[in-house]
Amino acid sequence: MITYLEAIREAQAKALADDPRVFIYGQDVGAFGGAFKATKGLAKEFPGRVLDAPLSEDAIVGLAIGAAIDGMRPIVEMQFADFSTVGFNQIVNHAATHFWRTGVPCPITVRLPSGGTAGSGPFHSQCMEALYATYPGLIVMTPATVEDAYSMLLEAVAIDDPVIFCEHKYLYYHLKAEALPTEAMPVGKARIARAGRDLTVVAYSAMVHEALACAEELAGEGTEIEVVDLRTVKPLDTDTVLASVARTGRLLAVGEAWPWGGVNAEVVARVASDGFALLDAPPRRLNAKDTPVPFHPNLWGTHRPTARSIAVAVREVLSQ
Amino acid sequence: MEATIKKPNAEAVDYSQAEVNRSLTPEDKIRFLRDMMRIRKFEQVAANYYQNKRMVGGFLHLYIGQESVAVGTLSLMGENDHCITAYRDHGHALAVGMSMNECMAELFGKSTGCSKGKGGSMHFFAPDKHFWGGHGIVAGQSPLGLGLAFGLKYKGLKGCCMSYMGDGAVNQGVFHESLNLASLWNIPVVYIIENNGYSMGTSLERSSAIKNCLAERAEGYNIEWDMVTGDNLYEVRAKTKVAMDRAHNESRPTILEIATYRYEGHSVADAKKKVYRTAEEIEFYKTYHDPLRLWRKQLLDEGVITEECAGKIDREARDEAEASAEFGMGSDYPREQDILSDVYYEVDRGTEAGRTGKHFFSE
Fold first, then answer.
1. Helix (H, G, I), strand (E, B) or coil at B91
2. Contacts of residue A104 in chain B, CB cutoff 8 Å?
């Protein structure tokens, strides 16, 4: 069995082995093996290519950009997604617009250990995908499976545009698969994680699993939920979403991030404007509560959507 | 480490006798004059068109008065060396060999501009000449310069990155993060602080807490540093050569603080305003520290040029600048349908990753 975290480690090992231009750069990624051990043993296996950085996110991302535009393929590990705000200028101003300004692409991959785990609190739990997805020029990946964590990270390194890779910390250890995948769906293509006829739940990252658990529970009551895993939030596979809504007539968008201007808001807006006639009920979204992320596990449990709160929202949409 | 602060020209060194300058041919020296003159005429013409509202507007940060810094330092750029700077980038662009046409057309926002009208004054680029911009956020480019130099080291190439900034940039945190990394990892970068005395309208005294000078901050990072008199082209070259040799041979960073002065405003917005400095101050620099005037006099004294020759260089530069403005005005505007190109490399190439899913969300 291989975990989501191990898949990320293996993808980086393969990227390093396959391409001498790849190097990994971040705080304690070397001998320490990364805050979450996503780079365990890689410094030893690839001497001089897995580099410990000082606590300087701004310069870390900037250095990676400078190296990337001169032909390298850096993978930057942020210790926590929340800390990427310190390097925000470099990501959204320099990396995102480099191709626009110069015609030279900027192939960096920035890994963001994202999302909540019990007890992590306000500065170590955030979901940043919407923030980055709003910037033209960035690709934002949000893998929900072990297979996607592996194949999409390899794609991220191969793609010539800057990629923000939002890997979910809760899935690191909880998610396991039999083996690494040998083939993958293309980047930007959503996946039907579970087929159903009554309502479409659009989700991504860890929320896919909450949605699947909800669907399993509701199936016992005779309600069939279709779960769409977006996989990447930018580009966004609106075709697959609209096709699903065409089958079910109802939409609930679920995400762990905050509601204002987020991925769910975009999904609902797309369906409302491009697929209004397909809808049998108003489209709805379910996000984390619009507050900072709480520390205590009980509070945290009510902060983010769960299978239970998704089921409540599903019933409401179905009742309309 | 020396306990005392090094002072520019403390021993009245004759930098014309530095090896890097003794090897110069008369043609080289004339080329430097021509390069500086081209930058000045380019900007004077640009400013005229801007003020006459014949340009599209936007920002325009002029380099006039600082020409010897770009020309002197970049005259030493070798095959594997890189250059990156901030928003006051016209001088560096022309000094590395970009054409006036592609630069002027960018100021006019035309499709023939170096950024196809998508970047503007602050985003001149010539990757083929190892000139990596042109960046509009103060000090934001400093870690990029580090990365370019890191790439050289990683690939085992002997080269360096000359990373420019103004005196205001030294107070940005990312500059300090970059210095720490440069020293820690022995990265061959040369940080060049073009100290023109003002962060926009705030003088150095009102913006930076220092003991003696800005470059001295290097001490805390165990980085070598020096101060340079910017109006002396020989000194600029001599001290830049020392820094570049250190980068090339020892893979160690350097900070050079080059004293210089800009005659125009921070941008065209404060072009005529004298609220933060006096007209007398500007006149003093124009009279006693103008790098073109001083270099021209130097070459006349050395017998390298005649008055007639200098006048010809002057006229040719002006004519070239005027012609580039004609080129800019006569060029096509960017086409509206090109707005969606140059955003994603994968989309433009039509790869699977570029074709799958929705990349653009405009209605």
1. helix
2. 125, 127
- To the nearest whole Å, the CA of A283 is away from the closest chain B CA by 19
Range in B38-47, B56-65, B78-87, B134-143 the model is least confident about: B56-65
- What whole-number distance in Å separates Cα of residue B157 and Cα of residue B259? 31
Residues 6+ apart with CB under 8 A from A42: A9, A12, A13, A16, A24, A29, A33, A50
Report how far residue B37's alpha carbon sits from residue B33's, in angstroms, rounded to the nearest whole number. Answer: 6
Instruction: Characterize A62-79 residue by residue with b for buried, 16 or more Cβ atoms within 10 angstroms of its Cβ, and e for exposed.
Output: bbbbbbbbbebbbbbbbb
Give yes or no for a contact between A119 and B325, defined as CB atoms under 8 angstroms apart.
no
- Nearest C-alpha in A relative to B119: A101
Phi, psi of B274 (to 5 degrees): -120, 35
Q: How confident is the model over A113-162, as pLDDT tens digits? A: 999 988 899 999 999 999 999 999 999 999 999 999 999 999 999 999 99
| H-helix segments, A53-105 | 57-69, 88-89, 96-102
State whether A61 and B143 contact (CB < 8 Å): yes
| A111 closest CA partner among A65, A158, A60, A75 | A75
User: Residues A140, A216: one domain?
Assistant: no
Query: Are A232 and B357 in contact (CB < 8 Å)?
Result: yes
Per the confidence metrics, is the pTM higher than 0.90?
Answer: yes
Residues of A in contact with B343 (CB under 8 A): 99-100, 136-137
What phi, psi does A164 have (nearest 5°)? -100, 115
Q: Where are the beta strands (DSSP E) in chain B?
A: 82-84, 161-166, 189-195, 198-199, 202-203, 224-229, 254-259
Residues of B in contact with A67 (CB under 8 A): 147-148, 150-151, 154
Which domains are seen in chain B, by residue range? Answer: 26-332 (3.40.50.970)
Q: Is A124 labeled as catalytic in the residue annotation? A: yes
Distance of alpha carbon B60 from alpha carbon B43, whole angstroms: 9
Contact residues, A window 189-218, toward B, CB-based 8 Å cutoff: 189-190
Q: Mean pLDDT for each 10-residue chunk of chain A (320 residues)?
A: 98 98 96 95 97 95 97 97 96 97 97 93 95 98 98 98 98 96 94 98 98 97 97 98 98 97 97 97 98 93 96 97
User: In this structure, are residues A247 and A197 in contact, taking their beta carbons and an 8 Å threshold?
Assistant: yes
Domain end, chosen from A119, A145, A177, is at: A177
- The ipTM (two decimal places) reads 0.90
Considering its fold, how many domains does chain A have in total? 2
Domain region containing A314: 191-318
Do the Cβ atoms of A56 and B154 come within 8 Å? no
SS3 state at B224? strand
Checking if the pLDDT of B359 tops 60, the result is yes
CB contact A311 to B (< 8 Å):
no
For residue B3, pLDDT beyond 50: no
A residues 213-272 lying closer than 8 A (beta carbon) to B: 232, 234-239, 266
Out of A56, A93, A237, name the one closest to residue B180 (CB): A56
Residue A159: give its domain's CATH number: 3.40.50.970
Pair A20, A131 in one domain = yes
Task: Count, in order, helices (H) and strands (E) of chain B.
Answer: 14, 7
Q: Where are the alpha helices (DSSP H) in A258-306?
A: 263-274, 297-303
Instruction: Report yes or no on A184 lying in a domain.
Output: no
Tens of pLDDT along B97-139?
Answer: 999 999 999 999 999 999 999 999 999 999 999 999 999 999 9
The answer for residues whose C-beta is within 8 angstroms of residue A166's C-beta and 6 or more apart is A81, A112, A114, A115, A127, A128, A129, A140, A141, A142, A143, A205
- Report the residue from A68, A94, A101 with minimal CB separation from B118: A101
Cβ separation B144–A237 shorter than 8 A: no
